[in-house]
Amino acid sequence: MVTEFDAVRHWSRTWHQNADRPAKPRLIRDISSDERYADPGLPLMQVRGDGTSVLLQDGDQLFLRGLGTTPQGERPFFGLLDLRTLKTPLVSQRHQQFEYPFAVLDVLTRRF
Question: Which of 70, 72, 65 is nearest to 91 (CA)?
Answer without folding.
Answer: 65
